C-alpha cells in the first residue's frame, strides 16, 4: 500500500462549501476546483471557491473537463484564460489538472485511446506554453490506467503526475497497480468533510508526497519543508504561502540580515546567498529565535540544504 500523507478534495459547482476554515481544520490541505469544460462552460462558483480556499490556507487548483468533440488546443487556451483570472498558475496553487472521463449523460464518450491521449498531450503542451507552469496532473479511473486507455508513456515526463480514481475504501491502495508518477488516489465520492454539506470527493497523496510536490511552485516549497523539518517542525499552509509570496523589494535587505545572523551563530562566514529564500524562512516566518538553540549538526545540515537548493536553481536557470 502506498504511503498516504496529505488529504485533498476536488469540487465543482455541485459542491457548496459553508466554511473553508472548517475544511482546513479537518485536515484538508488542497482543493482542485473545476474551472471549465469544452470552450463554452465555466464553473460559476469557481472564483468564490478559489478565494475561500486560499484565504483558509487550503491550496486551490483548477481543472478542465476534457471533451473529444472540441479541438484540444482551443480547450486548453480557454482553460488557461479563465484559470489565470483566479491566480491558479501562481506558485501557491495546485498544479492544473486534466480530467479524463466519459460523461455519457452529456454525450461525452472518448472514442479511442489514441484520441484521448492525443488530447491529453496537446492540453499539457498548450498549458505549459501559455503559462510556463511545467507541473501537471492527469485524472482518470483505475480501469483506464490499467488498460492503458490513458497511457502516460505517450505524454508524461517527470513533471506530470497521475491522479487515480478507485473507490475501494482503502485510501492509498491502488489494488496492485502502480506507476512512478502516481501521486493522488481519489478513494471516495461519498466523503464527509467539515464545512461542506453533503458528500464530496476525497483524495490522498501517494508515495509520501507532500503538498509541496503538487503545487506549481514545487521544488521551492520543498525547501520550506526541509528547513523546518531540520528542527522537527512542519510548515503550515499559511507559512508556505508567506514563503512563496515574499518576492519583494525588501529581499536584499532581508538576505543581508539573515546572513549576518548566520555568521554570528556559526562564528564564521557562511557566504552570501544571492537568493532571499533563506531570509524569507528566517525572518518572515519569525523562526530566527529557534536557531539560537538549534544543535550545531542540525544547523549545519540546514545551511547545506539551502546551499544545495540554490545550486539546483542556478543549474536550472543556466540550462
Structure report:
With 319 residues, the chain is of the alpha/beta class. The chain has two domains: 211 residues, TIM Barrel (Alpha-Beta Barrel), CATH 3.20.20.80; 98 residues, no CATH class. Helix content is 40%, strand content 17%. The protein has an eight-stranded mixed beta barrel. Helix 1 links the parallel strand 1 and strand 2. The longest helix has 23 residues. The relative contact order is 0.12.
Sequence-ordered SSE layout with sheet pairings:
Elements lengths: L6 E5 L8 H6 L2 E10 L3 E2 L3 H10 L3 E7 L6 H13 L12 E3 L13 H19 L4 E6 H6 L4 H4 L4 E6 L16 E10 L8 E6 L13 H11 L7 H9 L5 H16 L10 H8 L3 H4 L4 H23 L1
Helix pairs in contact: 3-4, 7-12, 9-10
InterPro entries: GH, Glyco_hydro_25, Glyco_hydro_fam25_subgr
Keywords: Glycosidase, Hydrolase
Organism: Umezawaea tangerina
CATH superfamily of the largest domain: Glycosidases
Low-confidence runs: 219-252, 282-289
Tally of individual helices: 12
Main sheet summary: 8 strands, mixed, barrel
How does the overall form come out from the CA principal axes? globular
Strand order of the largest sheet: 1-2-4-5-6-7-8-9
Taking all Cα atoms into account, the compactness measure Rg is 21 Å
The chain-level mean pLDDT equals 80
Instruction: Count every beta strand, where a strand is a DSSP E run of 2 or more residues.
Output: 9
Structural class: alpha/beta
Strand percentage? 15-25%
CATH architecture annotation of the largest domain: Alpha-Beta Barrel
Amino acid at each position: 500500500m502506498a504511503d498516504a500523507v496529505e488529504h485533498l478534495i476536488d469540487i465543482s459547482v455541485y459542491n457548496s462549501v459553508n466554511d473553508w476554515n472548517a475544511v482546513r481544520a479537518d485536515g484538508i490541505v488542497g482543493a482542485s476546483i473545476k474551472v471549465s469544460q469544452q470552450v463554452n462552460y465555466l464553473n460559476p462558483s469557481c472564483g468564490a471557491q478559489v478565494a475561500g480556499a486560499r484565504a483558509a490556507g487550503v491550496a486551490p487548483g483548477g481543472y478542465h473537463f476534457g471533451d473529444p468533440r472540441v479541438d484540444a488546443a482551443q480547450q486548453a487556451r480557454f482553460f488557461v484564460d479563465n484559470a489565470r483570472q483566479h491566480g491558479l498558475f501562481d506558485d501557491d496553487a495546485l498544479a492544473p489538472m486534466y480530467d479524463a472521463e466519459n460523461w455519457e449523460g452529456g454525450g461525452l464518450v472518448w472514442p479511442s485511446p489514441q484520441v484521448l491521449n492525443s488530447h491529453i498531450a496537446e492540453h499539457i503542451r498548450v498549458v505549459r506554453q501559455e503559462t510556463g507552469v511545467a507541473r501537471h496532473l492527469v485524472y482518470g479511473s483505475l480501469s483506464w490506467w490499467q488498460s492503458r486507455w490513458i497511457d502516460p508513456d505517450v505524454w508524461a515526463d517527470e513533471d506530470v503526475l497521475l491522479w487515480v480514481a478507485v473507490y475501494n475504501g482503502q485510501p492509498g491502495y491502488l489494488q496492485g497497480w502502480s506507476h512512478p508518477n502516481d501521486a493522488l488516489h481519489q478513494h471516495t465520492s461519498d466523503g464527509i468533510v467539515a464545512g461542506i454539506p453533503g458528500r464530496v470527493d476525497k483524495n490522498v497523496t501517494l508515495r509520501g508526497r507532500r503538498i509541496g510536490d503538487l503545487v506549481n511552485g514545487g521544488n521551492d516549497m520543498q525547501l520550506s519543508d526541509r528547513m523546518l523539518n531540520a528542527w522537527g517542525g512542519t510548515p503550515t499552509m499559511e507559512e508556505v504561502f508567506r514563503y512563496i509570496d515574499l518576492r519583494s523589494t525588501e529581499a536584499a535587505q532581508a538576505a543581508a540580515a539573515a546572513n549576518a545572523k548566520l555568521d554570528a551563530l556559526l562564528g564564521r562566514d557562511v557566504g552570501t546567498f544571492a537568493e532571499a529564500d533563506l531570509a524569507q524562512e528566517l525572518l518572515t516566518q519569525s523562526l530566527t529565535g529557534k536557531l539560537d538553540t538549534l544543535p550545531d549538526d542540525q544547523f549545519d545540515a540546514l545551511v547545506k540544504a539551502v546551499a544545495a537548493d540554490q545550486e539546483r536553481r542556478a543549474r536550472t536557470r543556466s540550462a
